[in-house]
Amino acid sequence: MRIAIIDESAVRASVMQEGLAQLGDCEIFVITERRGLVRRISEIDADIVLMDLGNPSRDVLEEYFAVSRVLARPIAMFVDDSDEESIGASIDAGVSAYVVDGFAPHRIRSILDLAIRRFHAFSRLQTELSVAQSKLAEREAVDKAKRILMQTRGLGEPEAYAELRKTAMNQGKRIAEIADAVVTAHKLMGGAA
Questions:
Q1: What residues form DSSP beta bridges with 113?
Q2: Are 70 and 39 in contact (CB under 8 A)?
Q3: Maximum pairwise Cα distance, the chain
Q4: Of 113, 87, 116, nearest to 99 (Cα)?
Q5: Which end of the chain is more exposed for a tag (fewer CB within 10 A), N or C?
Q6: CB 47, CB 75: distance < 8 Å
Q7: Residue 151 in contact with residue 113, Cβ under 8 Å?
Q8: What φ, ψ does residue 54 adopt, rounded to 5°?
Q9: Which helix (H) or strand (E) holds 113?
Q10: Pseudo-torsion of CA 117, 119, 122, 124, nearest 10°?
């Protein structure tokens, strides 16, 4: 497992590094500068990112949340203190584990496992949401196209759908593509969508 530790304090980073060394089978990379952070993490190709922020100011926390939003990786963030607003912001930023009261070596394995599992569960949900939204958009396009065919050609709904389906088969395209073309052509001809 490739682990990136992000900590502006080299001393704190070394404590975390020592705790992770007990796990074995880990390659550990320490980043102590914020400049070029996203690029560095991409170069490392880390499996998980650990951010030990100590007691960050609101601006620093927001900056790291912005980095979290860009990274498509499990992220565990360690802070000394927190409040409800910061915890909510960390979830919105895609942080997989937000650990208050700092790093403790005896908890690291369970925190890594939690962060990785939550990241994959959240990614799976995002993928399912994206697929559902895409299917809904396709269904709406097909419904619009059917209405257009019903209004312009006097067809019933089953006939309008059959016409879309037949055209899609003849052209080797999906019904949603044909429906989009019908809707676009109707708009170009001055019709309401």
A1: none
A2: no
A3: 77
A4: 87
A5: C
A6: no
A7: no
A8: 65, -120
A9: helix 108-153
A10: -80
